[in-house]
Amino acid sequence: CYIWLTAYLFLSPSLFSTVNLLDSKASQGELGWISSPSHGWEEISGVDEHYTPIRTFQVCNVMEYSQNNWLRTNWIPRNSAQKIYVELKFTLRDCNSIPMVLTCKETFNLHYLETDEDQGSKFREHQFSKIDTIAADESFTQMDLGDRILKLNTEVREVGPMTKTGFYLAFQDVGACVALVSVRVYFKKCPFTVRNLAMFPDTVPTDSQSLVEVRGSCVNNSREEDPPKMYCSTEGEWLVPIGKCLCNIGYEERGVACQACRPGFYKASSGNVKCSKCPPHSYTHQEGAVHCGCEKNYFRAEEDPVSMACSRPPSAPRNVISAINETSVILDWTWPADSGGRKDVTFNVVCKRCWPGPRQCEPCQGAVRFLPRATGLTNTTVTVVDLLAHTNYTFEIDAQNGVSSLAPTVRQYAAVTITTNQAAPSAVTVIKKDRTSRNSISLSWMEPERPNGIILDYEVKYYEKQEQETSYTILRSKGTNVTLNGLKPDTNYLLQIRARTAAGYGGSSRKFEFETSPDSFSISSENSQVVLIAVSSAVAIILLTVVLYIVISRFCRYSKSKHPDEKRLPFGNGHLRLPGIKTYVDPHTYEDPSQAVHEFAKELEASCIAIDKVVGAGEFGEVCSGRLKLPSKKEICVAIKTLKAGYTEKQRRDFLSEASIMGQFDHPNIIRLEGVVTRSKPVMIVTEYMENGSLDGFLRKHDAQFTVIQLVGMLRGIASGMKYLSDMGYVHRDLAARNILVNSNLVCKVSDFGLSRVLEDDPEAAYTTRGGKIPIRWTAPEAIAYRKFTSASDVWSYGIVLWEVMSYGERPYWEMSNQDVIKAVDEGYRLPPPMECPATLYQLMLDCWQKDRNNRPKFEQIVSILDKLIRNPSSLKITASTASRPVNLLLDRTSTDITSFHTMGDWLESARTLPCKDAFRGVSYSSCDTLAKTSAEICLTEIRPAATCPEWEPSMGITTL
Ligand code: ACK
Q: How confident is the model at residue 152 (pLDDT cuts 50, 70, 90)?
């Protein structure tokens, strides 16, 4: 009892969301209610079970005939309530325990009267309306009195909608022995709350079924990210929080408020992240900092993020080494000892030309080149070329980083001084071919750009290109031209030239290619003819192959379309079909759709059909009920869908496509096609007649009138029909209770097939941002987002149908807008369990609504689960009660576990202890599947109780299935 009480205190939201309008126990003095006649109800002082003084009323005129004693409360102002609750605590004497009574009742009546003002002591009983007769669950006897046992009854009744300013309650006794211990009158409200940093005010629900939409306002120091919204239910519970507020910069979420960052912490972005500690070498002494300032001598570059430590310029590079090569030098150094706390260190090299003696330097002239460059070096090396020979240079290398420009300018650099050597000449760059013959070539070239001294001679090196420098010839020339003789005709040669001075050879020129003249250059006319013939034959062969390929592929396609069996798509709606399993054929794959109709639907004579009355309206015309009498067959009741006059060819095609689809199915839970009338007008589709019409309307009409087993039986039928469709490779796309038909035996059948009209026709279908039309509330998120319709998305819709059935045709997500539904589902919220819904069924719904479609159950598994539930009805007794679920009724799947069965194994374990245990004893899980399936098939598809199933009793309504 203690545990129960504790759980109730923590979990029940309604405990904190009721407002008392009257509480008789709270009154210290006389209540002063009116008693009529005055010797009827009597006000008495007493104590409650905790010995707290209370005022009670009692009456016990059981020794007299014809009692009619009224007790009227004082006037109770209604406040803003529309629906009020009356909680009565009372004791009642067992009539059998009173000896020699003349008149004794064990009930009394509760009445009310609405008025706009207090009528004082004026009391007329005929003005009152009866709320209910109140009976005791427990009555006490003389013996209980002796034992001092108080058998207190508690009853609660709802009254509403209330419209006037206030009301009276009245208690009518007609001869009972009753004591009214307490009367509490209250209404429910959604209490002030803060959710997602938005404040929602106290809200009184309306009396009607619809929810009250309430906009939240952001708490101090926060801003709207997405408009915050919640819905207040009639039960005073907040539902579906959507949208949120985010703490401003400098503020973080603490509890349900946005509070300033403490000194030493900062927050630079709005959002619900915590304030961060100031990064190294930075600080803040104020609260609510959006960034931290840098310590002395530390800086932050403009592009540095505020989360980065403050840094300082690097120290100088170290250990500079030079390697001189004639008039070039390679400088190398090591990284600075302190990079200043940054990685973006670069180096700049300054070149100075110096003279001996007192140090005189000036910046190097423009001719000096740095490889790769002089500034912004990221590596610790640079090559300096084109220096003057026999000259002194000083190179200063300084290190910089991203904050060097912010720091006071104290240059940190390392220097090195060098003297260059004599330089060799630079390379020959311009070579010109003067003359070529079969065996020789004459060349000339220009002197190198920088000879660096007197050119003694040129070295000319050449070789046959194909010999790859394995053998070459070298010639020396004093001048800038040469003729190479003794070459092979029609041959390619490569050649390089370099100059020589007293300092040695200069760099080689790049490789220069030339070709000697051939012996002759003509193709004989005989050869050219052979070439011509070869080319034309090749072209002819290619052309012939192409033509043959086109002809053969056309022929194959044509012959395929000639054989009906071959017309089936190898993949039905994206599913790999197994050979031997009948697959659904998309009528669109027929060039002529009327051919599809006649292949799958029987043509009926209009004279065989008698129309009785119109039962509804479809997209294409009226839906009628009637009779079909085929020669030598019994007359049967049928539904007739007609195509209205003035239809277009496309409408006729779409209308008949439903028959082409339906005609392919043959299953007890799929609406059966009797035939079509296409040869006379009106064009008709004739199906079996379903006496109870659409499931949604049927359930609404019979609210709370079925046993859970009956509902599960209906759901099992729908799942079985859907399993058949998914096995056929057909994706329904519009599975909803409105598209399920119910016959007189409560057998449910899937209906509403079609192609384009599947969604065009459905009034629930709405246009999505991608332009398609989709019944949002029933459709899986991936199908809404990117039109990924699969049997798994049908399973999602099945979960919604499951919810519709268990809530007797309630509209999924009530009056929420489609956009809000998409957003809420995307944020992980799911519909709450319908009232009195078995926990196992709610768990099944949640499984069908798994975000990842691969985690949803297959229809085959759903059928098997439902079969097991039917075989073991006691497992349906545990309800997913609203008292034990979180305040947020649209549940986040990840944070919720409402059932006691986590796995089918758990479930079967419990099944073994329940009434069906004999059937399960010694059975492994897998064979139990088979067992359940077999017996459920016997019991359900044949619609009779199974003799082998002891727990199926007619009282459970199974016979009506
Ligand atoms: O809910 P209802 O009475 O059942 O209203 C709709 C209406 O036609 C438009 O679809 C009813 N209806 C459709 N097909 C059948 C059928 N095979 N048997 C009985 N009623 C049908 C449906």
A: confident
**Domain count within the chain:** 5
pLDDT band, residue 313 (cuts 50/70/90):
very high
Q: Based on the domain organization, do 398 and 446 belong to the same domain?
A: no
Average pLDDT for residues 871-899, to the nearest whole number? Answer: 55
Closest atom, ligand 1, to C-alpha of 616: 7
Best residue for ligand 1 mutational test, from 741, 744, 752, 804 (most atoms within 8 Å of Cβ): 741
Which residues have CB under 6 Å of ligand 1?
Answer: 615-616, 618, 623, 639, 671, 687, 689-690, 693-694, 697, 741
734 and 761 share a domain?
A: yes
Same domain, residue pair 490 and 356: no
The verdict on residue 918 lying in a domain is: no
Q: What is the pLDDT of residues 683-723, one digit of tens each?
A: 999 999 999 999 999 999 999 999 999 999 999 999 999 99
Catalytic residue among 173, 654, 727, 734: 734
User: Two tokens at 694?
Assistant: 């659409």
Which residue, 516, 549, 564, sits at the end of a domain? 516
CA of 210 to the centre of ligand 1 (A): 27
- pTM of model > 0.70: no
Lowest mean per-residue pLDDT among 73-87, 122-136, 616-630, 921-935 = 921-935
Q: Any idea what the CATH number is for the domain that residue 838 is in? A: 1.10.510.10
β strands within 502-621, DSSP E: 504-505, 512-515, 571-572, 575-576, 609-617
Judge whether 287 lies within some domain: no
**Residue 694 CA: which ligand 1 atom is closest?**
1
Pair 635, 729 in one domain = no
Cα–ligand 1 centroid distance for 642 (angstroms): 12
Domain that holds residue 70: 18-188
807 lies in the same domain as 866? yes
HEC letters along 412-470: CEEEEEEECCCCCCCCCCCEEEEEECCCCEEEEECCCCCCCCCCCEEEEEEEEHHHCCC
DSSP 939: I
- Binding-site residues for ATP, please? 615-623, 641
> Which strand (E) or helix (H) includes residue 246?
strand 238-247
Question: Residues 668, 815: one domain?
Answer: no
Of 916 and 287, more confident = 287
Structural domain includes residue 570 = no
Q: If you search the block for the tokens 């904190």, which residue do you land on?
A: 16
**Is 332 annotated in the active site?**
no
